[in-house]
Design goal:
The complex is a heterodimer of chains A (718) and B (117).
Chain A: H1 2-12, H2 17-38, H3 42-46, H4 55-69, H5 71-75, E1 78-79, E2 88-89, H6 97-111, H7 118-144, H8 147-159, H9 161-164, H10 174-195, H11 198-214, H12 218-235, H13 240-257, H14 266-269, H15 274-295, H16 299-326, H17 335-341, H18 345-349, H19 351-355, H20 364-371, H21 374-387, H22 391-409, H23 414-451, H24 473-501, E3 510-513, E4 519-522, H25 524-535, E5 541-543, H26 549-556, E6 559-560, H27 569-580, H28 583-592, E7 597-601, H29 612-626, H30 649-653, H31 655-661, E8 677-678, E9 683-684, E10 695-700, E11 706-711
Helix pairs in contact in A: 2-7, 2-8, 4-6, 4-26, 6-7, 7-8, 7-10, 8-23, 10-11, 10-13, 11-13, 12-15, 13-15, 15-16, 21-23, 22-23, 23-24, 25-26, 27-28, 27-29
Chain B: H1 7-23, H2 27-53, H3 58-82, H4 94-116
Helix pairs in contact in B: 2-3, 3-4
The chains are: A mainly alpha (718), B mainly alpha (117).
């Protein structure tokens, strides 16, 4: 049997069984660590080591500033290069965790005399932390169930597409570090609840501090943990350890969190954090009553005392909450988080939140795409957790259920659900495999101990002595094990395929297949930004839609009017109004904002569909939300959005249309189609003869994707 | 005699019962309770002062109140861990509990010093 051959090999190293097990575990963890890192490197291999998408460019720029100017300049930085003429207090409006982490890694590497550029550190930060997350998942699984479940959890989370989507190499965004911090905090808290030690509670407070410094999603932690405490109190599983763990974490964590300027006093003033405070006070009352009950021998007296105290506490709490909410001192839930509870809220009230594609509700296909077999392993895992209910399994079930609910509301939050789904599925896999192998090995042991004299390799618990009355049990177990192995290998294949096809594109560089199957690269974005950097005066101001703001400041090094921070809706609406108005009105607005250059993104030549014409209706809606002069029906024909001859006249003459289609009417884009055929919309454009009066074309990239126009100064008066 | 005792007698009986039960607790726990009471009392004084004078600068007020509340809560945790009646902690040496208490207080007050402004 291969069992004895392997154990013979290990025995030649004179290892005892425990050491063999340790060796296997450590080697599995090392391999998983490396696997988690290298599976995220597709885009570095295919393109180059660069930062992807939009938000990471801001993070990169701030990290660069931090490494060049030091922490105090970074913490107090006021940036006048964005949101002209308002500027932005960067030090007070970002989550510094990611930047400080990358800067520390950079400093460490330089200290060890590795002369790497900060960009390489930034690109590879997310995969590095993904590897660390697999280690945390192992320890968490070990805490909840056993080390086998921990190993499976580490493997599942190393390749799970839900996590990979936001942590590929190059995706230098808060989530890459935040998921590690989230899982780490939860692990430390569960460990604190299990041991009741103040030291672990302190560690979980620091974990929470790291999470608060890294991502705005920390609100999930500060609401889930009080909810968990409440559930434990209600179901009667409370204990002294819970008191120690929660109080230490809450008080120290809250204090540490308030050191981040962006968070400020929200822990005592914002409605989203009130649950934690409420549970804190509830716990004091609850345990005080418990203590009094323990001291009093007479239950009748205790009932009286209980009545008085509970009514007092509820009255005081209710009055405080009511006064706080009504007077506005406790601010209500902000739109971002309120739209999680009421998904229709954002569409009606806050178009900017509704327009982000990541905030849309999740389709079933996204769940299947991101989770694959974990979707049906999850309910199985929940069943196992309920079979062996403890404080820790109750926590992971609550985490899984709440995070899955939120993942159903917003696509982006599949990321938060991924660790829970992986852990619970790992429990299912581990428990099933364990049961099956027990069946297999107990049969084996009965055979072996007959032939050999008690080998030390079979240390499996032979409590279940199997009777030979079911001869096919071993075969059934073998078949089921083979099926489990097949499923898991299919999962691994699927995850790698998804990573390679869907989640490894840098978004700033586009690739396509040419007519002969060769790969064609469109590097137009960087071409345009570098043109801006090299050919415009250093104090030029660029107006574009807010999507490109971060990239323009980071790569083009020019001042922008609005960028991805979207903190000022009116400013964005002004830009939206300018883009949707006729050229004369737009010129007035641009003069008032001191705009020198206008940048638009156009996909008609290449068929690129995320261009400004497809985003135009959002510009109209956001502009119309603040300036009622812009009305969305003006741009539609019978409710339909068209750019061809039958389009609305306002659409055919607005600034965005003119800037995108200037000189496009002379261009033949596709064989057999008339000139001016828009490949992204699939129609021939309506207005081919465009004349610009106040702007002139400054630069168009080689595939017409980015077009830059210079705003002409006003005519001389005579 | 089915007359139920009035609430005043009820309260007095409650008070006496509590007092006699509390007198039986060991001295080290009573010292911790005294410390907790002192911390909570200090926090109350600060809140009353804030009600009179106003809450600017808010971070100073918060750091003052939270340092009192924090150290009170940590002392209660210490009391729980040192109390011989708690079965969860019977194999935790009291020196370790006290060392944890000191460490957490150290972190608490360092953060408070940063937050005072």
């Amino acid at each position: 049997m291969s069992n004895t051959a392997g154990s013979d090999l290990l025995k030649t190293f004179k290892l005892k069984t425990k050491q063999q097990e340790l060796l296997i575990r450590v080697s599995i963890l090392c391999l998983v660590y490396i696997l988690a890192f290298i599976t995220r490197l597709f885009s570095v291999l295919r393109y180059e080591s660069m930062i992807h998408e939009f938000d990471p460019y801001f993070n990169y720029r701030t990290t660069l500033y931090l490494t060049q100017n030091g922490f105090y300049d970074f913490w107090n930085w006021f940036d006048s290069e964005s949101w002209y003429p308002l500027g932005r207090i960067i030090g007070g409006t970002l989550y510094p965790g990611l930047m400080v982490t990358a800067a520390l890694i950079y400093r460490l590497l330089h200290f060890l005399r590795f002369a790497v550029h900060i960009r390489e550190v930034c690109v590879l930060t997310a995969p590095f932390f993904a590897s660390n997350t697999t280690l945390v998942a192992y320890f968490f699984g070990k805490e909840i169930w056993d080390s086998g479940a921990g190993l499976v959890a580490a493997i599942l989370i190393a390749v799970c597409p839900g996590y990979i989507s936001r942590s590929v190499a190059g995706s230098y965004d808060n989530e890459g570090v935040a998921i590690f911090a989230l899982l780490f905090t939860f692990y430390l808290f569960v460990k604190a609840v299990n041991t009741g030690s103040l030291a672990w509670g302190l560690a979980s407070a620091f974990g929470y501090f790291y999470m608060v410094s890294a991502w705005g999603g920390y609100v999930f932690i500060i609401n889930l943990i009080p909810l968990y405490v409440l559930v434990l109190l209600i179901t009667g599983r409370y204990s002294m350890r819970l008191y120690v763990a929660y109080n230490c974490m809450y008080v120290l964590g809250m204090l540490l969190a308030m050191q981040i300027r962006f968070v400020g006093f929200q822990h005592v003033q914002s409605g989203e954090h009130m649950a934690a405070m409420g549970v804190f006070f509830l716990m004091q009352v609850f345990y005080f009553l418990d203590w009094v009950k323990h001291m009093l021998s007479d239950t009748k007296l205790f009932q009286a005392f209980l009545r008085i105290t509970v009514t007092c506490a509820v009255a005081v709490g209710g009055v405080a909450l009511g006064v706080g909410t009504v007077s506005g001192y406790i601010s209500p839930w902000t739109g971002r988080f309120y739209s999680l509870l009421d998904p229709t809220y954002a569409k009606d009230h806050i178009p900017i939140i509704a327009s982000v594609s990541e905030h849309q509700p999740t389709a079933w296909s996204s769940f299947m795409f991101d989770f694959h077999i974990l979707l049906f392993l999850f309910p199985a895992g929940v069943y196992f957790c309920f079979k062996r209910l403890s404080d820790a399994t109750m926590f992971i079930v609550m985490y899984g259920l709440t995070s899955l609910y939120f993942a159903g509301v917003m696509v982006r939050l599949i990321l938060v659900a991924t660790p829970a789904v992986c852990l619970i599925s790992a429990i299912a896999v581990s428990a099933t495999v364990k049961n099956l192998t027990v069946l297999l090995r107990s049969k084996n042991k009965v055979v072996q101990t007959g032939s050999t004299k008690g080998t030390s390799s079979a240390k499996a618990s032979s409590k279940a002595s199997l009777d030979q009355s079911q001869p096919f049990q071993k075969n059934g177990a073998m078949a089921l094990l083979f099926g489990a192995f097949y499923l898991l290998s299919k999962y691994a294949t699927h995850c790698t395929w998804v990573t390679s096809e869907a989640y490894s594109s840098p978004s700033i560089v586009l690739a396509a297949r040419g007519a002969h199957g060769n790969r064609v690269i469109f590097d137009d974005y960087r071409e345009a930004y570098f043109w801006l950097r090299q050919n415009t005066p250093p104090d030029a101001k660029v107006m574009s839609w807010w999507d490109y703001g971060y990239q323009i400041t980071a790569m083009g090094n020019r001042t922008v009017i609005v960028d991805n921070n979207t903190w000022n809706n009116t400013h964005i609406a002004t830009v939206g109004r300018a883009m949707s108005s006729y050229e004369d009105e737009a010129y007035e607005i641009m003069r008032s904002l001191d705009v020198d250059y206008v940048l638009v993104v156009f996909g008609g030549v290449t068929g690129y569909s995320s261009d400004d014409i497809n985003k135009f209706l959002w510009m109209v809606r956001i502009g119309g939300g603040v300036f009622p002069v812009i009305k969305e029906p003006d741009y539609l024909v019978n409710g339909e959005y068209r750019v061809d001859k039958g389009a609305a006249p306002k659409m055919l003459n607005c600034l965005m249309y003119k800037l995108c289609y200037y000189r496009f009417g002379e261009l033949v884009t596709e064989y057999g189609k008339p000139p001016g055929y828009d490949r992204a919309r699939g129609v021939e454009i309506g207005n081919k003869d465009i004349k610009l009066e106040h702007l002139e074309e400054a630069f168009t990239t080689s595939n017409w994707i980015v077009r830059i126009y210079k705003v002409k100064p006003p005519n001389n008066r005579w | 005699m089915g007359r139920t005792p009035s609430s005043k007698e009820d309260a007095q009986a409650l008070f006496h019962s509590l007092r006699s039960a509390y007198a039986a607790t060991p001295v080290n726990l009573k010292i911790i309770d005294l410390y907790v009471g002192f911390a909570v009392f200090t926090a109350l004084i600060q809140v009353v002062y804030m009600a009179i004078v106003g809450s600017f600068p808010f971070n100073s007020f918060l750091s003052g109140v939270l340092s009192c509340v924090g150290t009170a809560v940590l002392a209660v945790c210490l009391r729980i861990q040192v109390n011989k009646e708690n079965k969860d902690f019977k194999d935790l040496p009291p020196e370790r509990a006290f060392a944890d208490f000191v460490l957490c207080n150290l972190v608490l007050h360092l953060v408070i010093m940063n937050f005072l402004g």
